[in-house]
Amino acid sequence: MPDTVQEKCIDVAFGSLLREAISGSLNSEDRDADRQAFEKHMRKCTACREEFVTHLAETKVMPVLEDVARQKGVTLEDLLESLRNTPRNIDN
Against a cut of 0.70, is the pTM above it? Predict the structure, then answer.
C-alpha cells in the first residue's frame, strides 16, 4: 500500500489487503472471508477505494482507450477531449 494511502486508510489491517486485491490473490475460494472483509472496508475507506480505482484506470481503462485511439488514428489526448465534449445521457 502506498504511504499516502496507508496514512489515510481508516483501518490498516484491512487496507493492507489492497495489494492482494489488486493482484487477484483475494479471489481464491480459501480467501472468501478476507475478500468479504476487504470489500466491506472498501465501502468505508475512501483512500483505499480511490487507490483501487486509480489502479483500475491505469491498468484496464487506459490501455483500452489507447487501443481505440490507435484504431481511430487519433492521439489519446484527442480521443479524451472528444469524450469530454460528447453529450451523454446518464439517466437510467
Answer: no
